[in-house]
Amino acid sequence: MDLQIIGKFIKERRKEKKLTQVQLANKLNVSEKTISKWECGNGFPDTSLMLPLCKILEISANELLSGKILTSDEYKMQAENNLIQLKAREEHNHKFLLTVENVIGYMASITFLILIFVASFIDMATWLRIVLIVIGFIEFVVAIHFCLCIEKDAGYYECAHCHNKYIPTYKQVLFSMHYGRTRYMKCPKCNKKSWQKKVTK
Taking a C-beta distance cutoff of 8 angstroms, is the pair 32, 21 a contact? Predict the structure, then answer.
């Protein structure tokens, strides 16, 4: 999936429809800058915008992903190729988010420990100790919340019994026993509890 080719294709179709970037942006409820970003190959429409964009430009989603108008012979072959590329892109994004989760988790833990250490061992006013501890605690809780959101949404958990891959609820992630990225949860398909590993594909 070549973003430069897709961007050029969006630009060509927009001009064929006699639309300015501003007019297209207004139809999609996005900024003109967003359209410019797509057309320059520096970004790609969000999945929620793909179908509305295709409707306006009178193309199929498959043609958008291919960056060209497809003949009937090319259509099926290109559809499979696009699905493979989208899956690879999704897997890459999931891995990136899980790396971000690690960074946030480690940084939050280190910051929390430093603030607690400073409040405990350095001579200062009592009110300042309390402020440092409260700041450390709030920062830690907020960071853990973000980490759990990423943990929930990036990738899937795979049931050890039926091998169903699914995205759990925030509540399941929050309250399940875990070690690393393996959690003891109930599978929504077979309703059995097991230690389920996080997978990105």
Answer: yes
Q: How far apart, in whole angstroms, are the C-alpha atoms of residue 189 and residue 106?
A: 34
Residue 80 pLDDT class (50, 70, 90 cuts): low
Q: Where are the beta strands (DSSP E) in 70-175?
A: 156-158, 165-166
As given in the structure block, the two tokens for residue 52 are 């509305």
Amino acid code (one letter) for 133: I
Q: Please, which residues bridge with residue 165 across strands? A: 158
pLDDT (tens digit per residue) in 150-194: 888 888 899 988 988 898 988 888 889 988 889 999 998 899 999
CATH class of the domain whose range is 3-70: mainly alpha
Cα distance between residue 87 and residue 10, in whole Å: 22
CB-based contact 65:86 (threshold 8 Å): yes
Instruction: Give 106: exposed, middle or buried? Use CB within 10 Å, 0-12, 13-18, 19+.
Output: exposed
- 149-164 burial, b if ≥16 CB within 10 A, otherwise e? ebbbebbbbbbeeeee
Q: Is the pLDDT of residue 75 over 80?
A: no
Ramachandran angles phi, psi of 49, nearest 5°: -100, -15
Give the separation between CA 156 and CA 163, rounded to whole angstroms.
11
Each residue of 96-147: pLDDT tens digit?
888 999 899 999 999 999 999 999 888 889 999 999 999 999 999 999 999 9
The structural domains of the chain, with segments of one domain joined by +, span 3-70, 100-199
